[in-house]
Records
---
Amino acid sequence: MRFSSIELDDSMRTLLHFFITLRAGIFILLLWPVFGHAETNLKVVTSIQPLQIITNDIMRGVDQAEVLIGPDQSPHHFQLKPSQMRRASRADLLIWISNDLEAGLKRVQQVLPEGSHKLELLPRLGLSDQHRDDDDHDHQVHSHPHDFDEHIWLSPDLLIRIAGLISEQLSKLDPAHARQYRQNSQTLSDALQQWKQRNRARLHHPQPTYILDHHFLSHFERSLALQPHDSLRDSHDSATSIRHLRQLQQSLKQHPVKCLLVAKMPPSAQARQISQQFGLKIQPIETLGHAGKDQSTIDFLDAIADALVQCR
């Protein structure tokens, strides 16, 4: 059987088109790990939900991080369940604030697999000495010495630096998605700058008035240029001295405030007593996020700003 020249041309054209399509498909498959959105094999675990939120913002389009300590648990005194220990033991990267804040993680670090990586944020930020001096100066009017405030994730300024550290570490461990991590980090940094400018104006006309159950909001106050406020206690588990309680009561008589901010519900007996004595509204601040709620970093900060608006 003979083919006409036209039939032969059509046959060759079809065959040529097939090979061109095949080569293009192979090329795309080879480039997909670099430019696509395939999940990474990197297992990232964070200590607390706020760090999971910011890590997920950076890993958007690639994968998601897991978290060890839920919002209903204290990072100071938590006891990990066997399931949480297993989750930690599979981590390629563990991210936490500091060995002082999450003291229980010292045991977790011992079960990490060989070759896993650890990112302790606070030492990398170089804040301890400088900010402790600033905090002491801010609160010296009340003669209330206190420990360094480790709630660094409440500051939009520090969150930008934290995002950079996490993005840098992820890019080293997962270079195939480094471009995505850097783009997401830059997008988040721009959004945090805009959030800061917008909420500085929002919270300054007028400024909220409050005291705190304990010292946990100094980094947020510094970023938003808010007047620093006094607290009932130095830290979450410290007691209030009689001397400081009397100073605080005298200050509230001379300079009334609207709210008593608490980072944990229900409030302590002392917080309830002070709120009743001076007619203060007890306003919770969700410093560890919300259980079962999908949040972005901006959503998390919005919730804090919204709570402070209630104290004007």
---
Amino acid sequence: MRKYVLLLFLSLPFLAQSQNIKGPYVGVTTQFQNTWVINDEQYEDVNYKHRSTTKWAPYGFVAGYKFNENHNVQAEIYRSHQGQKFDLIDINGGKSGEKEIDLVYYNIPLLFKYTTTGKVRFNFQVGPQLGILQKGTEHNSFSRAATYQIKERTFSVPQGNYLLASTQDSDRSNSNVGEFNQYDLGVLLGTGVEYSLSTNLILTANLRYSYNFVNIRKEEHIEDLSRDSDYYVLRQNMVAGVQLGLNYLFNTGDGTSRARRE
């Protein structure tokens, strides 16, 4: 019995700390990320190869609330450069050109965050994310004329540069230039480490992954074989990166706890 009483006595400071660390917090972030555009319904027999594409989410802002030391709700808004580069591959397996999809979003995730205790601690984050497109282009550049094959069909694309889609109204005055969906929706997962520089100032480093479910283009089925080497049905954004941040906590803990009152 004495053992249990002693264990309870030793745990009281930790219970009190959990009760007392609470309140709103704000912060700033930056993120370095690899970005992909996934062709969701077509993985094999494609006339392109994905290239590793690294981009930057240069700045973001955080606003959250700690209900206690472990449980948080956090909203963010950050500017995110996304998209991907591809090598275009002809029927003989040679590179004939490049495709570049360049997208800039304001992403707004709403996250539930669980944080362990201690001066250095781990956190886990999950929640939905809304993306609002600011600008975007899809561009093909063929360095030479080449022949391609889709299933049983063969076709040729001449050398040249082709703008396939754009957010700019001036570009879309050409009827051959398509549109992007303005809104994107997905899920964001994260885990990382936090370090308390002081009672209120917190340094964060997180690994983040997001997968979105909305087609990047407004057109549902795209087949423009006079200017492109393949067809597309559903293409979605995927991002994985490292986020660094600095938060300031307005601690509203009152110095008491249920454990101490009892």
